[in-house]
Amino acid sequence: MSTSVPISNEKPVAAVNTDDPVGRHPLVLGGLGFKSITDRVAGISLGKTPKTWPFALALAVSLLMVLGGSLGWLVSQGVGVWGMNSTIGWAWDITGFVFWIGIGHAGTLISAILYLFRQKWRTSINRAAEAMTIFAVLAALIYPAFHVGRVWFAYWMLPIPNQMGMWPQMKSPLLWDVFAVSTYATVSALFWFVGLVPDFATLRDRADTKTKQIVYGILSLGWRGSHRAWLHYERAYQIFAGLSTPLVLSVHTIVSFDFAVSILPGWHTTIFPPYFVAGAIFSGFAMVVTLMVVARTALGLKHLITMRHLENMNKIILATGTMVGYAYGIEFFMAWYSGNPYESFALMNRVFGPYAWAYWTMVSCNVLFPQLFWFKKIRTSIPAMFAISIVVNVGMWFERFVIIVTSLHRDYIPSSWSYYRPSLVDMSTFVGTFGLFLTLFLLFCRFVPVIAIGEVKGVLPAADPHNPHDAHDAHGEKAGVEHHG
Amino acid sequence: MKADLLAEFETPEALLAAVEELYRRGYRVLDAFTPYPVHGLEQALRLPRSKLPWLVLPFALGGGGGCYGLQAYLNGWDYPLDVGGRPPHSAPSFVPISFEMMVLATALMGVLIFFALCKLPELHHPIFEVEGFAGASQDRFWLGIDGRDPALKRGTTEALLASLGASRVAWTGETAKAAETSEAVKKPTEAAEEVPGAVTKEEPS
Amino acid sequence: MATSHEVSTKPDAIKLDAESAKKLQGIAIGVAVVGVILAAAGYVTDPHRLAFSYLTGFLWITTIALGGLFFVIIQHLTKAGWSVAPRRHMEWLSGALPACALLFLPIVLFSHDIYHHWMSAEAAHDEILQKKAGYLNPTFFYVRAAIYFGIWIFLASYFAGRSREQDKSGDRKLTEKMQNLAPPATLLFGLSITFAGFDWLMSLDPHWYSTIFGVYVFAGAAVSSLSMLALINIGLQRAGLLHKISNVEHRHDIGKLLFGFIVFWAYIGFSQFILIWYANIPEETLFYRHRWEGNWKVVSMVLLFGHFVIPFLVLLSRHAKRHYTVLGGAAVWMLVMHYLDLYWLVMPTLDHHGAHFSWIDLGGLLAPVGVAAVLIARLAASGHLYPIKDPRLPEAAAVQNI
Questions:
Q1: What pLDDT, on a 0 to 100 scale, did the predictor assign at position B84?
Q2: Interchain contact, A339 vs C272, CB within 8 Å
Q3: Which pLDDT score is estimated for A25?
Q4: Of A86, A260, C271, C389, which one is least surrounded by beta carbons within 10 A?
Q5: Chains that contact B by 3+ CB pairs under 8 Å?
Q6: Which residues of C touch A337 (CB under 8 A)?
Q7: According to the model, what pLDDT value does residue A109 have?
Q8: Which candidate from B45, B56, B71 shows the least CB-CB separation from A239?
């Protein structure tokens, strides 16, 4: 594991004019080729454990224990330990659920949608982003599973024949959610695993101990890299991308249905499905940027996850952030245009009511700060993008909170008006979900190829046998540059 | 396809050229083993397009249609529920779950069919005993010829592969033992000269 | 490869030959003349009906032109390499926008008829409409239309103009200039098409509102313009004019985009429908209630199957998207369906209890389409068939679908 990549190697990145319409900026820098990419990425999984990793894992696991404790307390005492009341029956739990599900969406966008659009730059980041998707969905699943209180009855949500002859209410959006989210988790995991098989084979072929050989050998299922298998692989990948694209849209669409099919002002509005999807991708990319900025330094992957990758993601954050801003604007316009007093009250109450502080946090984090990405200087500055990506995640958490809590806290009957304050268990549960997410992500970084080795090789100029590439020698290694790894 | 005679190449170009040359010389049962899908090989190997999409299509239709039917049965017929005045059988509200189950059925069956088509998982394969074959998942490009290939001739084919730029030529499994005597294929000198990382040009930046 | 049967050593034609150019313009003028005569006859017969038919026809060609503009902007925004030739064809379509501005004048004349719910005196007695009067009033309506057309004509002529300039100079800086304008252009485009949709379509029923409506209009624009693009590319390829810079791979790509936007249209349409249907709030469901009366129910079902289910199944296969006749047929079909979609949005305001198709509708369609087509044909006949000095030509010609 190399953490000693000299910073000076990054300089040419900023110097090259990425806007030059002729020729594309290289996706892999530092003259890496087939061998050095394999060395670099496989080295992380097979090499020695870096010194900082156990500390990070210990921190993550202690947060995970907070989650375990909070959920244990919840199960033993009942959902009353959360701060909800009879007016505000949904609060931090659904906020946390939507927050995590949203985070997951960027991974699928990168692995599926960008694939369909032939965006080759996705290859360096898709593996980690897909891992993030799966872990985020698992963190999200905590909430629906536990908010029922008696978790041992969770199977009631499935249509299983029973002695009472009753069936689930298939017309309920909450049940659609059950199917959507569990399908999403399953399909994302399958997609991820199919992509991992050839890379596990690489690890198997390089493993230096018997244990690693056996473990990676089993995981690679005996993959040999036969071209016949590659053809099926590419087709399977295409089918998965084609399935995951509508799937990812459907998941957040169905999440938005949880709110929008109701008649509650502030929830019932037709823009919700695409608006939720845009918001999900927005927050997900922010999380990918946060993670990648750290990971590329910690794991020595600056030549693979380059400034161009980060800049592209920042552009997507800007685009989706603007779409979210569009949705806010249209919602506002329509609240006025509808001429409906309830609609306009709900919106005005958000802006000037008791939760105005949350609303303005949301607007500034989601709409104002990402606009800084219009400037190339900010788009390509590591500290700036790191800060903005965190701001966006905070903002997107607040967006869900604002939608859920401010719409509920003013009931049609003023005597039911209320104010919501989270309980300690609310907070510890949410903090604990980060423990689950980070624990899984750290394990992933240590034992699984964090970059899709085979896919990155496929986008090297040397990979195309029809492409003349004189700057490269026989192995796609750029000559004259020393290799780190 | 059983890869009995294997040859290692250093670059995708060399592999592709070798495949094309072998095909010209009448070899018909060939395969390639590469660290990533090399484009152009499918034409050179005359491989058909994968049938995978057509094989999963029935499961997609069955998953979606079956799930619609299930919902219609559960909520429309067996235990009608009146919620908010919506009819017991209300098509729009059965769409989301039908779609999700269509995706789930396609994905699950897609993975199973994909592995079946690739004949995976396979716990052991004699090909892995070939020295250097581990490179096929890293930075080497291997060519395999089936022992049943009509054009394959012990002795001459090895020499042909070597002349095409193979840096290694080897037999797998049983055939390897039988051919122990003819194992004396030498590394061609041209290939040996192409040492990775050789300084040839300054990086233009 | 599947391209083998199309491989030819002959270079791509850079211009239409004089004869085809003349023929193309002749057809456009013919359609315009027939359309104007039919529309005039329609006006004499039933001016009220013609007003609505004309609005439908006007929106049909305007959304196609807008879809073209969107495509051009997005290619620059994403610095796309595959789409050099299709971009030029979409520039032609967006070049119809000045004609659309001219074609809006009859709408201005008809406006008190079409939008009588909120333009006439009766609106003064309507409490809800009084609240909206700040937005829904004739003066602001015309001013907004002028702003929309101002934005669109500026953007269309900017991108098409720089692109034509590059045909002469080959200056790469022009590509960068277009790329720099693309992000703000996307923003302007998104807002203007949304509010144009609110003004021209949603305000037909001024009590009704839906926040997703702008996206729905956009989805229709994307589907119809991509269908037109598919037809243009198929035409140029079959005529043997283009076969390198626009070949089976580009056709496939256009087919994929068309397929994608057909699904997108269905997604947006379904989202709007299910939320309104499920919540069942009277002032909202009325919109679908009107479109479920009499044989409007049939039209609604035809839209569901014709605008989504059937084309989805047809275009699912890779073979279909690469096939001249299948893709071409699907494109023509989608253009008809896009007309029906607009008809379904506009005409229930006129035909309350069921659809009555009339020859006047044909006049209302052909007149604006013919006039816009004259301009599009002139652009196609006078300019180059693809951006002949675009820096990304080699990349575009080398596109391969796996």
A1: 80
A2: no
A3: 78
A4: A86
A5: A, C
A6: 132, 135, 198, 209
A7: 87
A8: B56
- Same structural domain for residues B100 and B157? no
- In chain A, residues with a C-beta closer than 8 Å to the C-beta of B76 are none
Residue A393 to chain B, least CA–CA distance (Å): 28
Average pLDDT over residues A399-410: 94
As given in the structure block, the two tokens for residue A426 are: 């609310």
Cβ neighbour number for residue B118 with a 10 Å cutoff = 23
pLDDT of A165: 83
Together in a domain, B103 and B57: yes
ipTM for the whole complex: 0.91
**Mean pLDDT, residues C252-280 taken together:** 96
Q: Number of structural domains, chain B?
A: 2
Mean pLDDT of C10-35: 92
Q: Which chains reach chain A with 3 or more Cβ–Cβ distances below 8 angstroms?
A: B, C
The alpha-carbon gap from B57 to the nearest alpha carbon of chain A, in Å, equals 10
Tokens of residue A327, six digits: 């949705």
Q: Tell me the count of A-B CB pairs closer than 8 A.
A: 248
CA distance A97 to A93: 6
Structural domain includes residue B18: yes
> Within this chain, do residues B19 and B108 fall inside the same structural domain, yes or no?
no
Closest in C1, C273, C400 to B92, CB measured = C273
Neighbour-count burial of C12, counting CB atoms closer than 10 A to its CB (0-12 exposed, 13-18 middle, 19+ buried): buried
If we measure between CA atoms, which residue out of A477, C397, A463 comes closest to residue B16?
A463
Report the DSSP beta bridge partners of residue B169.
B7
A161 class by beta-carbon count within 10 Å (0-12 exposed, 13-18 middle, 19+ buried): exposed
For the residues of A58-89, what is the DSSP string, one character each? HHHHHHHHHHHHHHHHHHHH-GGGSS--SS--
Go through chain B and tell me how many residues it has.
Answer: 205
- Long-range own/partner contacts, residues A210-215 (CB < 8 A, 24 or more apart): A212/A46
Q: Are residues B11 and B112 in the same domain?
A: no
Per-residue tokens: A362: 């949301």
Average pLDDT over residues C317-342: 96
Distance from CA of B87 to the nearest CA of A (A): 10
Which strands form B30-33's sheet, in the order they lie side by side? B30-33, B141-146, B3-9, B168-171
Q: Tell me whether residues C283 and A22 touch, CB distance under 8 A.
A: no
The answer to whether residues A196 and A448 touch, using CB atoms and an 8 Å cutoff, is yes
In this structure, are residues A292 and A305 in contact, taking their beta carbons and an 8 Å threshold?
yes
Q: What is the pLDDT of residue A431?
A: 97
Inter-residue contact A365 to A398 (CB < 8 Å): yes
Residue B41 lies in a domain: yes
**pLDDT-derived band at A23, boundaries 50, 70, 90:** low
Amino acid at C28: A
Please, are residues A406 and A87 in contact by the beta-carbon 8 Å criterion? no
Residue C113 pLDDT class (50, 70, 90 cuts): very high
pLDDT digits (tens, 9 = 90+) for A272-313: 999 999 999 999 999 999 999 999 999 989 999 999 999 999
Phi, psi torsion values for B143, nearest 5 degrees = -120, 135
Domain hosting B67: range is 52-117
Indicate the domain borders of chain C.
9-119+127-397
Amino acid at B98: S
pTM: 0.92
Residue C7 pLDDT greater than 60, yes or no? no
Tokens encoding A193: 């695993």
The residue written with tokens 């954050």 in the block is A317
Q: How far is CA A305 from the centre of its chain?
A: 17
CB contact under 8 A, C1 and B84: no
Alpha-carbon distance C152 to C60, whole Å? Answer: 16
Tokens of B203: 């990086």
Test B114 with A473 for CB contact under 8 angstroms. Answer: no
| A475 Cα to chain B: minimum distance (Å) | 6
CA distance B65 to chain C (A): 14
Strand pairing class (B3-9; B168-171): antiparallel
Residues of A in contact with C209 (CB under 8 A): 334, 337-338
